[in-house]
Design a protein that fits this description.
With 299 residues, the chain is of the alpha/beta class. The chain folds into 2 domains: 18-26 and 115-281, NADH-ubiquinone oxidoreductase 51kDa subunit (Rossmann fold); 34-103, OB fold (Dihydrolipoamide Acetyltransferase, E2P), CATH 2.40.50. It is 24% helix and 19% strand. Strands 1-7-6-3 form a 4-stranded antiparallel beta sheet, with no helix packed on it. The chain has a 4-stranded parallel beta sheet with strand order 10-9-8-11, with helices on both faces. The longest helix is centred in the middle third of the chain and has 15 residues, at 183-197.
Length: 299
């Protein structure tokens, strides 16, 4: 692929170990008998817990209320009863209030057909409110509240919306599998973002070691008659960092200490596009995500 590009300086080429899972279809993890839901699942202020011990909750029910725009709503991923509210330590070392829910009752949506909602006539501001209500945050790692990222400051214009499908870290293949298996949903999520921010150009960056994802995304974009550009990137770490990705696909550099919006760019992860699709089209809050479980010890 002669069009492959990358950021110009630095970078390393670690062995990626992706072959363990890159060809393995996504499958559901077992549903736990007890789910522990932290109120801090995002950058910013933790959500305020809305439930008490012995409360009954439904799948998708709001159990944590965002505290301002730099926060996010939290919803229950399972139906059940609240057994305990206590403090836990997160992998980041942060101590967070958490709700322990014992699985009981019937799921409202999991395993059932979900009706599609039409969004084309909804304003950008109402779409943003929907994303805030559903607790959507960036799924590339930073968990930045999406409504805050997509609320463009006065005087700024989004020239480039960049979808990050790089996933350059060793072992990880979650975004790869999403782009192969859920490309239509991801593309519709991108169209929803297009309606919110109205960027001049939409670019999807994917590294060349995901050739099947590149092919599927390009094919479905052409079929839909869209002018999104899929850019095949040379494999290099840390190309998934948004500043490196912008340099690779746009050729512009984010100023030191600045933000992508300073040069007219906004970057979001491919998994976030799926979450946006599910929030708007399926009326589904952010209660699950795809992760990679990998390594030589896995059987």
């Amino acid at each position: 692929m002669s069009e492959q590009v990358t950021f110009p300086k630095g970078g390393v080429h670690p062995f990626d170990f992706k072959s363990f899972t890159s060809g393995v279809p996504i499958r559901n993890a077992p549903i736990p008998a007890l789910a522990v839901i932290p109120m801090q699942q995002h950058m910013g202020k933790p959500a305020q817990c809305l439930v008490s011990k012995d409360d009954l909750v439904r799948e998708g029910m709001l159990i944590g209320q965002a505290q301002g725009v730099f926060s996010a709503n939290i919803h229950s991923p399972i139906p059940g009863v609240v057994k305990e509210i206590h403090k836990i330590y997160l992998p980041t070392g942060i101590r967070s209030e958490a709700v322990a829910i014992e699985l009981q009752g019937e799921f409202d949506r999991s395993g059932k057909d979900e009706p599609r909602l039409e969004w084309q006539g909804i304003s950008g501001s109402d779409l943003l409110k929907n994303l805030a209500d559903k607790g959507i945050v960036g799924l590339g790692g930073a968990t930045f509240p999406t409504v805050l990222k997509y609320t463009i400051r006065e005087g700024f214009q989004v020239e480039y919306f960049v979808v990050n499908g790089v996933e350059c870290e060793p072992f990880l293949t979650a975004d790869h599998r999403l782009m192969v298996e859920k490309s239509l949903e991801i593309i519709e999520g991108i169209r929803i973002v297009q309606q919110i921010m109205k960027p001049r150009q939409i670019i999807i960056g994917i590294e060349e070691n995901k050739a099947d994802a590149i092919a599927v995304m390009r094919e479905n974009i052409v079929r839909a008659g869209l002018d999104f550009e899929v850019v095949a990137l040379k494999v290099k770490y840390p190309q998934g960092d948004e500043k490196q990705l912008i340099k690779a696909v746009i050729g512009k550099e984010v100023p030191s200490g600045g933000l992508p919006l300073d040069i007219g760019a906004v970057v979001s992860n491919a998994g976030t596009m799926l979450a946006i699709y599910e929030a708007v089209v399926l009326d589904k809050p952010l209660i699950e995500r795809v992760v990679t479980v990998s390594g030589s010890i896995i059987r």
